[in-house]
ABC transporter ATP-binding protein
Amino acid sequence: MEYIVETKKLTKRFGKEYAVADLEMKIPRGEIYGFLGPNGAGKTTTIRMLLGLMKPTAGSVQVFGKDLRKDRINILNKVGSLVENPSYYPHLTANENLEALRKIYGVPKTRIAEVLEIVRLSDVGNKKVKGFSLGMKQRLGIAASLLNSPELLILDEPTNGLDPSGIIEIRNLIKRLPKEYGMTILISSHLLSEIDQIATTVGIVSKGKMIFQDSIETMRLYSKQKLVLKVNDSEKAWRSLIAKGIKAELEEGIISLFEQSDKGVAMAVRSLVQDGYSIYRVEEEKRSLEDTFLQMTAEEKVL
Ligand SMILES: Nc1ncnc2c1ncn2[C@@H]1O[C@H](COP(=O)(O)OP(=O)(O)OP(=O)(O)O)[C@@H](O)[C@H]1O
């Protein structure tokens, strides 16, 4: 698999404290990588190292397959970022603010209209930024980070402090970017619900360590609510349930019921008993995604 970002044993120590420890982050091309972890887990420190803003204590960062230490300028030319709350000249318009940055990047003037269009701020390009809502300011920050047409966009908690409609706007905007512009995105958050709604790949960090990294589907598998039956001859037992129209799934010798009402469970159990199967266990596997996340970060359990 091609990784846009790949860190090897990335470590940052402040005095005796490890803010980031042996982190192996892998971000495949075209993904929205949700970088999730409680406050103080080491997300911002990691992001600062990815952007060459902070020197690692140990380990390496590869972006676009190249070592950040050796190809820093070339790499950063193709990266966009929004790390802290963007600062603007409040008395200047959105267009004028972007124009100041455009000159630094040396991109054509036409790019300003393009980035305003991408973040849906074309209508207010000539309005002064001081009148903008926080959500609009944040979108302007994303517009600025897109000026150099980055292949990788890094956003540190971009929805922090926004109201629900502002959050939805940013979310929809971010979701469009890989599809329409082929970008790869790293978005950090301490909110699982946020990452759940936007990310395609998830990396969970706790106390500086990566404790989970996989697709969002895999993460959801861990937290499915299930009612599972352990029986003898599970394959046959499962077929007998299906034959009676009881919806069930068979995985590694364990039957999971779709219908989990008391009535539904009683019916399935009765049917199996009547057909002569031995039921060893009926168990509820109840873990919400939130529980899974909390448990993982509390125990630092590597899944
Ligand atoms: N410049 C610094 N000097 C000393 N300690 C630091 C410094 N920057 C971060 N830390 C410590 O490193 C740890 C990780 O902090 P970091 O800001 O990376 O976490 P985070 O996951 O981004 O959290 P948040 O969402 O609160 O920003 C924390 O314990 C923090 O106190």
Summary: Residues 114 and 122 are 9 Å apart (CA to CA).
